[in-house]
Specification:
The chain has one domain: Rossmann fold, CATH 3.40.50. The longest helix is centred in the first third of the chain and has 17 residues, at 21-37. It has helices at 21-37, 71-77; strands at 6-11, 41-47. By secondary structure, it is of the alpha+beta class. The protein is globular, with a radius of gyration of 14 Å. 24% of the residues lie in helices and 13% in strands. A two-stranded parallel ribbon has the order 1-2.
Amino acid sequence: MLGFEKVITLYNKMDKVDYSESKFLNIKSKLETFLSKIGIKPYSSIPISSKKGDNIVALSKETQWYKGLSFVQVLDEYKIQENDKSEFIRFPVQDIYKFGR
């Protein structure tokens, strides 16, 4: 799909579900199943609240169960493959995608 092999997935509005680990893991599992069917592997999956800044720059106390890096930390460590540099592409997210409803 469009030459993507791995993506960073952000799960926004965690504040709306009281930072529920089980809700995060449920939707993460469903999305990873879908992505694997189209040949994409998540590089990192991060629960965030963009409104409150949770896990964007620094890890949040609200998601102590999350043991990964913040979004900015993931971006800092991400290595761009040499052949990827000439084909930058960005997709703005303009909608909420619901799985399993």
